[in-house]
């Protein structure tokens, strides 16, 4: 008989999340430096908050489509809680500087693309997107001179990095228990290949955010580059493949099976 507390990943990830938690009530709103707030910065923060709203829909899908994984779906409660704080804290900062949004904004922001059929593909997509989000927040934190926003986005960068690590932990377990590890590794590699080879094909809120906001990020001198090398290496570690930034991912894919098709899941 299995022992859900000893065997599950949730207990450890829950404890890690509790230790790392930042408190909304600790943020020093009175220290906002309004001289450092520009319309372009407000537009960008509003767009970031908007793209963070998709968690609600994604959580519903995780709870439905991965309902048989009691361990993972418990952890999703932590993810959902933390991810809901992200748009909330950004909207609170915006309100402090005079920008408000309505309920329609909240509802529209929740729309998101369906998950792909492959469970490992979904997990790997989320590892990558959390790493991209973490890097984007780190870059914004380095560029903004508004101290409270800088503090907020440093918190969010740390949350996203921890989320990437947690999705990685579940992806690793999925592969260890897989009844068809070769098919799973192929699906994971497909996600990595499509993300970097043909980025616009991957429908994920993080990608859609970058596509919509390239100009404003340039205006604010924010580095739009994603940590491609680190992501490729990490997915290589996950799959026990020696992947580096120079690896020909298409050749790797040919080695493990048929090429990706646009009909699958989040690729359009
Ligand atoms: Fe987030
Ligand atoms: Fe996250």
Question: How would you portray this structure in words?
Answer:
The structure is a single chain. With about 270 residues, the protein is an all-alpha fold. The chain has a single domain (about 30-255), classed as Orthogonal Bundle (Ribonucleotide Reductase, subunit A). The protein is about 70% helix and about 0% strand. The protein has twelve helices and no strands. The protein has helices at about 5, 10-20, 40-50, 55-65, 70-95, 105-110, 120-145, 145-175, 180-195, 205-220, 230-240, 250-255. α4 (about 55-65) runs antiparallel to α5 (about 70-95). The longest helix is centred in the middle third of the chain and has 31 residues, at about 145-175. It starts with a helix and ends in a 12-residue tail after the last helix. Mean pLDDT is about 90; it is low at about 260-268.
Question: How do the helices and strands line up, and which of them pair or pack?
Answer:
Layout: H1 4-7, H2 10-20, H3 39-52, H4 55-65, H5 70-96, H6 103-109, H7 119-143, H8 147-177, H9 181-197, H10 205-219, H11 228-239, H12 249-256
Helix pairs in contact: 2-5, 3-5, 3-10, 4-5, 5-8, 7-8, 7-9, 9-11, 9-12
The structure holds fe (ii) ion (2 copies).
């Amino acid at each position: 008989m299995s022992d859900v507390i000893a065997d599950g990943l949730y207990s450890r990830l829950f404890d890690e999340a509790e230790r790392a938690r930042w408190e909304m009530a600790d943020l020093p709103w009175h220290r906002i430096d309004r001289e450092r707030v520009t319309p372009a910065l407000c537009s960008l923060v509003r767009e970031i908050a908007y793209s963070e709203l998709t968690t609600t829909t994604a959580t519903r899908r995780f709870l439905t489509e991965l309902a048989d994984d009691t361990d993972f779906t418990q952890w999703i409660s932590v993810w959902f809680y933390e991810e809901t704080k992200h748009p909330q804290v950004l909207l609170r900062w915006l309100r402090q500087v005079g920008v408000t949004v309505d309920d329609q904004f909240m509802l529209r922001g929740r729309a998101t693309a369906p998950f792909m059929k492959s469970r490992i593909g979904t997990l790997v997509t989320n590892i990558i997107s959390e790493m991209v989000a973490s890097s984007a927040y780190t870059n914004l934190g380095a560029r903004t001179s508004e101290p409270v926003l800088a503090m907020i986005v440093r918190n969010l960068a740390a949350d996203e990095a921890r989320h990437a690590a947690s999705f990685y932990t579940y992806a690793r377990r999925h592969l260890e228990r897989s009844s068809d590890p070769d098919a799973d590794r192929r699906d994971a590699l497909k996600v990595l290949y499509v993300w970097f080879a043909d980025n616009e094909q991957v429908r994920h809120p993080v990608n859609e955010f970058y596509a919509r906001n390239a100009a404003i990020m340039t205006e604010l001198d924010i580095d739009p580059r994603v940590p491609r090398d680190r992501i490729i290496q990490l997915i290589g570690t996950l799959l026990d493949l020696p992947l580096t930034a120079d690896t020909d991912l298409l050749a790797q894919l040919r080695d493990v099976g048929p090429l990706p098709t646009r009909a699958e899941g989040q690729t359009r």
